[in-house]
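Reopening: structure tokens for the iron/sulfur cluster complex, inputs below.
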Amino acid sequence: MFGDSITRGYSPLLEKSFKTKHAHIASTFVHAGIGGESSRDGVLRMKQYSGMTLVVLSFGMNDSLFSISEQEYEGNIRQMIEYFELVGTRVILLTLNPIDIAGDDRCVRLNRVIKRLAREYCLRLVDIYRAWGNEFSDFRQGLADAVHPNESGNELYTREIMKVIPRKARIVLWQYNGNPAECNYVCPYCSYDPKTQSGHHFQGTIAAWKDAFLKTFRNQYVIFYFGHGEPMIGKNWPEVVEMIGSEKKWEMRVISNLSQDPGHLIKTEAAKTGRLNVNASFHPTIVDREVFYSKLKQYQDAGINIPVVYTMWPPFFERFLDDLQYFSARGALVHLRRFRGWFKNKLYPEAYSEAERRLIAHYTDRATIKYMLANELTDGELTWAGVDFMIIDNQGNVGYCDDFPTSSFKFGNVFAGNVRLLLTPNPFPGKNVSDGTVDGVACLLRLDYEQLEGNHILHFSRLGGVYHEHDNIIYENRGLDFSDPAIRAEFHFPPRNLVDADYIFKCPTRSMKSKMRDIAHLIS
Ligand code: SF4
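Re-run output (same inputs, fresh job):
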């Protein structure tokens, strides 16, 4: 915690909060806030803090007292950023909180500089100034005097920084081969029209892509996520894997039907250094279970923990428990996806019967039940999408997430070097959470999930109560009684009667919009 007296004020609380919430992470906090210091002082003592994993950097409140110009301020912050990046320390920037001094616009001016630098260096920003406005109806409510936060102000600092610390990487849904893209399967429940699942649409050269990504994301952690068509059959796939393996701060996540021989992939640099995460989509209408497992086992034998993604298309209910047992016995966690679309003139997931809905809920994680199975309304919910989660098409255009074409969200283009991502979470602009990605759901602030690390599906499941423990797979929701109206309301099950509707209405964790939708559904 590197800064002035304001840093000194909140940093003990931040340490306590971090150690309580992340007790499993060994951490040492250095409280390096010194009262009265300016950005000039920061530059003078920054080298005392080499060897840190993370620095939360905040200076500026005292700069005007030392006649430090905006230009010098910018230069000082820049020097600190570059020094910490050089020694391998992750940097988080903070804007300054509002102050109660008439006519003094230092916060507004310096915050502009801080935001500009956050964009330029692709750093994560905690926008305290903005959070202050959202938290306090009168900004003085968070101040102990004209400048310093009181207890409520320090709590706000702590809460806001705590949200950003676990979000280290930029997650890029990279449609490297286009979208739709070549797929060698034709699944009856595919969310893309099978007729369009063809062709190789990679554009440019791999060297140009690497250069563009490095210029856009600088030396930040980047996770590339592949899930359009069958990524492993794209013509340029080997080069893409090599490219990611060549940068130590890059990793990859792949959703694959495992139709390809993994022999080459598991020998790549990304695989050898634990940066290759593969999720296996099981498609029983196309592939035999034993054949599918024989491929999956090769990854397991190479030390890659690979879960099975299983879409609950209605005809699969008959075989699901047998498949679950089969894969579980072989150490593969099954992650259930709800089917979205039409089957026999019924629209899913709404059309799932009560028994089908309960079966899915017993074997999946909480967020999948509440958001994907319930097709939950999320418009207006704050999300990290557009901040550290984005989609990039095969021409380098950067968009919001999988739910929207890149053309509808113009965050720039990696080749043009003009990418401007959001700095803070914004309201989700669409109706439902992302259909295709667990990251899209995990981006919802309300869930309070950490950024999904390693294999995102395993992590997402674990945060929602489905995980490996020793040789077992634990399903925390298996024992839940989904006939209980309180549990139904909490898990966004549709109401059966007025008692259920009453519980939904009183449920403290549901948004009013979500409650009204379910109750309206019952009435209709
Ligand atoms: S493997 Fe995936 S992308 Fe290909 S058809 Fe099946 S569901 Fe669609």
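The first strand starts at residue 2 and ends at 3. The mean pLDDT is 93. Marking as resolved unless the reporter disagrees.
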